[in-house]
Specification:
membrane, transmembrane helix, mainly alpha, transmembrane
Length: 234
């Protein structure tokens, strides 16, 4: 009876030691907790706030540009890029409200993460397109020669060419103020959309790194835990 009692106490002591080692020394659980702390709490909040601020700024500036002249094209007033970035930020806030589950055990958590990644990629493409359109329009305006005709501003790239294309800006009584305001707005659009594109790119990179780096690190440490268990048995 004494031998059985001693064996039971030894087994219970061994189980306690194993639990303590798992809690203290298991790198996988430590990394999951760190990834939860960094990427589950701080990461979405920081990027979602930046995306919301930049998206609102780009949207408001786009509508202000559309109010200057009714003949401006949609590509020249990139409020659509700002709306997409705002939607991405809202998905990031939704991801914050979902309770964390390790290894993505819930379907809702995986779906929201996938939506946030895909929408961030879409926002990146939209912001890059907005920067390209704004830069092209800005370079054209630096070469324009404009005249005010019948409450519209008519601009040409080459006044000596009679067959050259004429750009008409409606509802513009003063060409000087129109060109100066458009140049300023286009520069602001380039800067804001470039920053928004970098933020979306960083969000995609961190989401990819959080998903796949944790996976490979976990696989790497499985043989180490198995060898430790065999040494304890011996």
């Amino acid at each position: 009876e004494k031998s059985t009692d001693s064996s039971k106490t030894q087994e219970s002591a061994m189980k306690k030691k194993k639990k303590q080692k798992k809690i203290k020394g298991d790198p996988k659980t430590g990394q999951e907790e760190e990834s939860h702390t960094c990427c589950g709490c701080r990461f979405p909040l920081l990027f979602a706030l930046l995306q919301l601020a930049l998206g609102i700024s780009v949207t408001v500036l786009g509508f202000l540009m559309a109010g200057i002249s009714s003949s401006l094209l949609v590509r020249d007033t990139p409020y659509w890029a700002g709306i997409i970035v705002c939607v991405v930020s809202l998905v990031g806030f939704v991801m914050l409200c979902i309770s964390y589950q390790p290894d993505e055990k819930t379907c809702v958590q995986f779906t929201v993460k996938l939506m946030y990644f895909l929408l961030s990629a879409l926002g990146l493409v939209a912001c890059v397109l907005a920067v390209a359109f704004a830069a092209h329009h800005y370079l054209q305006m630096t070469k324009f020669t404009c005249d005010t005709i019948l409450e519209s501003c008519q601009c040409k790239l080459d006044t000596a060419d009679p067959l050259g294309r004429t750009f008409i800006y409606q509802d513009a009584a003063d060409c000087g103020s129109l060109t100066s305001m458009l140049n300023l707005y286009l520069l602001l659009q380039m800067v804001l959309n470039l920053i928004a594109a970098l933020v979306c790119l960083s969000a995609c990179f961190v989401m990819w790194k959080h998903r796949y780096q944790v996976f490979y690190v976990g696989v790497r440490f499985y043989p180490l835990t198995a060898t430790e268990g065999q040494q304890q048995k011996v």
